[in-house]
Sequence to fold (364 residues):
Amino acid sequence: MKILYAIQGTGNGHVTRAREIVPLLKKDHDTDILISGIQADVELPFEVQYRFHGLSFIFGKKGNVDIVETYRKSRLKRLMRDINSLPVDGYDLVISDFEPVSSWACYFAAKPCISVSHQAAVLNKNAPKSRNFDPIGKAILRSYAPSSSQYGFHFKSYDINIFTPVIRSEVRIKESVNLGHYTVYLPAYDDARIIKILSLIEDVEWQVFSKHNKLSIRKGNVWIRPINNDEFIDSMSKATGVFCGAGFETPAEAMFLKKKLMVIPMKGQYEQQCNAAALEEMGVPVINSLKKKHLQKIKDWVLSGEIIPVNYPDITENVLMDIIAIEAKARIDKMTLMGKQSDFQISEKTNFLKKLNKIATGKF
Fold:
């Protein structure tokens, strides 16, 4: 089968997940890779057939998305050219991890596009939602990368088409020990703000991985380090706790490694606000910003924060193969029945997902 796997390049989570998913797809299928976006710091270790500027949300330095910079770098005319130029009809299946060029190309070509992403899970009606009213943020999340079928990854299996996180093999094999330091990844804050707050918590070593600095520097008990995939995993596996944004992959990996976790959701980012709501339900402490008024909460977490137990089995290959089987059969059924799917076929798809869901939750 000829598959196009499209990756969102804003942030590191999508690229990190792709490093696990792509080799599994390539085992049995002729798979081409597409990536768009300009904010990722993690490299892909395989050939990429299509690279597009895409539509990236640009991180600010005060805990927010920089709307002005996002608009300035959006290049909408180029985005439309890329969408129109992508030959999606040459593929049997198009799988999008919240990637807009492939999704909109399929939309305009009336071709199915399968969403396999964390965002698909966030949008599910059963997943936790932010208490903050944000209709614009929700609308953006829904329309950013349209899809015909949705399968998601989340901190818990909230529905039959939502599965537990894809944990990188480098993380799964890593021995988790406690050397006393704390690993920090807050890409929406500048280094000066991070140093100003964390240096007030003495007798703690903070290992901060920074998007804003290419040099390694120390300021008292705060160590600023440039982002490096292997070094970040090593730091996290040896940490007492992880202090990060309310993204998806880093919190999931921190909990998998049995580390204390505290998160700050990015301002104006609906997905992270929903992630924070889900983590808070699980018992993870959440603060709204990196300011002195939250200093005591950070100190309390350092002194008495708890490890949140999770069960994240390695089911990625099973999930992918069954999703592909479901979608391939659905395409054949649609052609055979002129677009009408029988009750039996709908039930069969549901049973597939229920079986995967049992694997994901350990309820065999």
Observations:
- The first strand starts at residue 2 and ends at 8.
- Residues 242 and 254 are 6 Å apart (CA to CA).
- DSSP finds 14 helices and 13 strands in the chain.
- Confidence is low (pLDDT under 50) at residues 338-346.
